[in-house]
Structure formats: structure tokens, C-alpha cells
Amino acid sequence: MIIHENFDVNEKGHLTIGDADAVELAEKFGTPAYILDENTIRKNCRTYLRAATEYFGADALPLYASKALCFTGIYKIAAEEGLGVDCVSGGEIFTAKKAGFPAEKIYFHGNNKTNRDIKDALDAGVGTFVVDNEDELEALSAEAVRRGITQRILLRITPGIDPHTHRAVVTGNVDSKFGSAIVTGQAMEIVKKALSADGIRLAGLHCHIGSQIFDIDPFSDAASIMVKFIAEIKEKCGYEIDELNLGGGLGVRYTEYDREIDYAEAIKDIAAVVTDFCKEHRIKMPKIILEPGRSLVAAAGATLYTVGSVKEIPGFKNYISVDGGMPDNPRYALYQSQYTALIANRADAPRGYRATVAGRCCESGDLLGENMEIQKAERGDILAVLVTGAYNYSMASNYNRIPRPPIIMIKDGEPRIAVRRETYEDLTANDVI
Ligand SMILES: *Cc1c(COP(=O)(O)O)cnc(C)c1O
Predict the structure, then answer these.
(1) Residue 237 a catalytic site member
(2) Is the pLDDT of residue 87 over 90?
(3) What is the DSSP code (8-state) at residue 424?
(4) Residues lining ligand 1, Cβ inside 6 A
(5) For 93-135, what is each residue's pLDDT tens digit?
(6) CB environment 359-394: b (16+ within 10 A), e (fewer)
(7) How remote is the CA of residue 44 from the centroid of ligand 1, in Å?
(8) Class for domain 109-292, per CATH?
(9) Which CATH number fits domain 7-37+298-427: 3.30.1330.40, 2.40.37.10, 1.20.950.20, 3.40.50.2300?
(10) N or C: where does the chain have the smaller number of CB atoms within 10 Å of the terminal CB?
């Protein structure tokens, strides 16, 4: 096992991903390529569903936050595993529907849904809007009235929590672009507006404090603040909230220096706090929704590259350049996210070499990691970056006119193409003049 149990080394000394030989995958499908172990994703879905229903009650539901990794196949898995999904754009909703995902189990997020988004989502029959602000509430109410329907909504609330993660992925603090804050009084205001708005049925509240969080305390704190707020709503408005969505954000182990989180244990701990607080504030336990993205899919993925130039700058650093980079994985460039890299064709050799792994773009910041612990590499080696299942393909671009890699899904050790490699023709398909 390397970092996660779906990564291992076989008798040839090759990296295996979900029991498939990474070197053979690279030969068969080319590089760069995203590899995704389906069994790991399904196992994670089941862990969440089982723990949520066991500790929060039979009606609890995990949603897959599909911005983490979005293509039709992933929505089919979410549907088969009995999860709902969280979508943040018309494009995600379209992809979910195309995959046959039941629209009533879609939650539609976003801090700036356009009028077009609102119409498209209503046309699609999206079950629940997570309304971010008063402007959106008014626009949605007007459109619902025009259609003669009543739309189920949650309100996005900012509980004012700093979860001690990267600044760019914090979302639950008061000055966030997301939601309405409790401390400023805006949260109570929007609740009152939602309760009296035409064409709207307020089902509950949502909060999401951030991402890649390893500590349970910020979740428990957020949950307790939300429960207190639900009690306040009951007292002031005489209205008992049915549903509380606690968001996603549980962390994932990317390197040996990260802890491994037992997600079932984490859910159990959060549930204990929520149960206590509901009793203390004399409200019924709402239906609990969880919204994991990263923790369902990240560990299932790895990206395979071919090593090109290897450069040693004496007294400075070593560079290993690969045939991908920030277009397929922008996370180091964006957040200095740490990854584990290894040479897949010598995966059993000790990682005693230090190198900066660079991409192929004309951009000094195009790096997959600096000072990474890896094996010494040479041109033609297969370099694997592990734990790339989340926020890689979904954040990929065509910068430098580089086609996006394919997604190869492994099921019980057998590979199949889930998303084909983009071609140069795909790159020019929208160019009109
Ligand atoms: C991104 C996001 C999630 C998922 O976060 P992870 O860290 O990937 O679990 C859940 N809910 C909302 C509203 C989000 O924006």
C-alpha cells in the first residue's frame, strides 16, 4: 500500500492502481492519462451512506459534490450507490441529466446563479435550490410564480467558522462571498423573506465551511451554531426547519505527512454533537445532508505521465519534466497543494531523490510539486502522481492548446475508457472564423 490501499507495487516492481499495472495502462492508453479506481469510489460512497444513516437517522443523505470530478460516468455511480448530487452550474446539471441522474435528487448551488441558470435548472426539474442571497431568492420566486410552481429551497448560511485550511478554500467565514451571515442578522432576514416569498418552500439550511479539513472541531462548531440558529428561527418565526445540510470538506491524505481520516468515525462524532445540541435546544433532529466531494473521489485517482527532460542544476535543484502539468492539474500552481509522485516502472525503488516536477507549459509556475521525494528518473520513465481524483480533471484547461487527458476507469483490475482523450480537432471545434 502507498498512501491508500488502492495503490500498491506488483512483482514487476510496477505501481498498481486498483490492481491494474500502471506501466501497462500507460502503454495501452498513452500519457498523460487520469486513472480512476471505480471500486474505491463505490466503497467511499457506501461508507458515507452507511455512516450517515446509522448515526444521523434513516433519512440522512450524502450528496456527491460533483464539482470535484464531473463526467457522465460519475453521476451513474452516484445514482447506483443511492447518493444525491450537488451541482454548481447549468453544465453540471446538464451532465447529470444526460447520465440519467434523477433531477429531484440534485441540489443546485452557487453564489451567482444567472437568470438563465435559474430557468435551466427549473426546466431540468432540479429538486432543491440552495439559495445564496436575497437577489437570487427574488429572482427564483418571480420565475417560480411565472411558472405556477413551488420550488423547494435551502438557504446558504455562513456560520462564521475559520476551519484552518488554505485561504482559497475557506467558505464559512462572515466576509465570504457565499451565503448570509448569522452574526450580521442577514441570515435571519433572508429566512423571513423566504418564509413569505411566493413560489418558494423553505425546507432548510445549508452551510459549508471549507475544504481539506482534518479536524472535526470546525464541523462540530458549525453544526452547533446552525442548530442554535434553527432554534432561534423556531422561536422567532414559529417555523421548524426540516433539513440541515452540513456541507462537505473532510480532508484527504495526499502525502505520507497527512493523517488518514476515518470518515465513518468523523460522521459519528459530528452526529453526537448535533444530537446533543438538538436536545439542548429542544428541536427535532432535522434530516441531515452531507456533501462530500474530495473525500469520495480523490484517493481513487492517479495521473500517469511520461518523463521527458531531466535537468540537474548543481547547487540548486533538479527538474523532472513531464508531458502534462498545470493544464491537467492546476492545484500546485493555485494552492501549492502537496502530492506524492513516484516512478511507476520502478515503484519498489526507494524515493531517495529530490526533484521539482515540472509540466510542459511556457510558464515557470507550471509545476506539479517542488522538492518532491521521488526515484531518480530518466527520459521515457512513467511518472505517477497519486490522489488526483478530485479537482484535477474538473479544473483542467486547454492552456497552451494542450488536449485534456482521458479518464480510464478501473473496475476489478480491468480498464475501460470513461472519457476519451481530447483531439486537436476537439480543440478547434468551436473556432468559427
Ligand atoms: C466544494 C463544495 C463541497 C465539497 O467540498 P469537498 O472539500 O470536496 O468535500 C460541498 N459543498 C459545497 C457547497 C461546495 O462548494
Answers:
(1) no
(2) yes
(3) H
(4) 65, 67-68, 86, 109, 208, 211, 247-249, 291-295
(5) 999 999 999 999 999 999 999 999 999 999 999 999 999 999 9
(6) bbbeeeebbbbeebbbbbbeeebbbbbbbbbbbbbb
(7) 16
(8) alpha beta
(9) 2.40.37.10
(10) C
